[in-house]
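SEQUENCE-TO-STRUCTURE ENTRY
===========================
Question of interest: how does this chain fold, as expressed in backbone structure tokens?
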Amino acid sequence: MATEGTMHLHRISASLAVFLGLLSLLNTGNCDEQVPLILWTSEGISLPSQSPPTAGHIVEQQQLASYLEKAVNVGPRNVVLFLQDKMSIEDFTMYGGAFGNKQDSVFPNLEGALMSSSSSLVLPAVSWPASNAVIGQLQDQLETSPLYMDPETLSQLRLNASSPALLIFRLPYGIGADLMSAKEILSGNDEVIGQVLSIMKTQSVPYTAIYTALRPSREAASLSMEAGLGGGRSLLQARGGYKERERERERQRRIKEKAGLYAPVEFKEDEETCILLWAKSLTVRILRSGRWEDHDLTPSTFGEGVSPKLHGSSCDKTKSRLVLNYENVLGHRSFKLIFAMSQRHYQVSARRWFTLDAVELEYDGTKATFNGSRNIYAPAEYSYRCESVTNFRWPLLIPRSSKDPANQWKVSFEDFQIQGFNVTGSEFSYASDCAGFFSPGIWMGLITSLLMVLVLTYGLHMIMQLHTMDRFDDPKGPAISVPQTE
């Protein structure tokens, strides 16, 4: 945390933005691949100093875990994590008043918190896969479940300095054609940080605060900044020219995208893979005292270095059962997420199909069961995939009965894919998607086309009813007299 060098920088600059700006100038080459991380403690709490990384060094997951472990083990065990969707070092240099315009800074609350804190740590370049694992690392070190909060909910919560708590505040980030939109959003996020820190101060509970993001935000901006700094001829030659840098950037982007696709959960029987599971997000929620409490199981299930506990799982030619074992989920010491599948031959279609019969939640001796066999099925040779599998929004999972404990739970699986039979190697077979052939877009197109055909048919019918007059008036001759009797 706080070193003499860091405090000296604070006294000279009196601003977080200048400090981050100087660090960014030393690390502009790869700033589109990393996110900054800022850590500080509440006022009056001092921690042993930690040496920040050297300029240009990229903090990877193992090193970041070491920083967090030292901070949590020695410091306050109430951790407030401000997790922004996207953030890069340029957000501080562009909107933090780093060039002398302090009145334009959008981080007054963040700078005030760092100035008042006696222990702080600034990591300007953390690899974004490492920042994605922050929640899981803190959860393991604190041995508690994360609580996703907002300032209004925090004001009703009573914290205890003796019991650990992991409070997560998700902050948005959006950038459109107008760069002022990003400035306004960052200013709003800083106001949220100020509100949260103010509430924490009123509760007189010491805390450790962390501000970071899931993804970098300024890939295009970093390119323009690099081009501006590298405008000299020698610098372009040293880096191989503009086209060479473009090719290198594209290669790094592909590596980054590939790294974001973590491997699926794989269960093996007799050294052969028989069950595969993948999801972008696994979330469970429970209703307590009229309020929903949620828990994200994704960091404990997927990712580099994550090995979920699968004891209790089994598979054969007709039935498969995948059991994911967790600890300390929403106050339950033992928690299991179970996928029960079966396959059999159907005479009508003359082929074998597999179904996800049930999704079960077992916690401290209680079982909640969701029936999925009516909606979740696929040919036995295929895997099953669906963009969203839930029991509350366009539900594919239904509680087994009205008295089942499942009625107190909400489960949500985003970008979900599972295969319990006929697995070859460690890759999914062809996916049978849950989206039907007649999607809402197709129905809208069909109905619109039908209306247009009806209008066209009616118009043609009216045109065909027109008849040519059998008598015409000659202007040079006498007027035509039409008797009324005709």
Remarks:
- The mean pLDDT is 80.
- The two ends are 108 Å apart (CA to CA).
- The chain is about 35% helix and 30% strand.
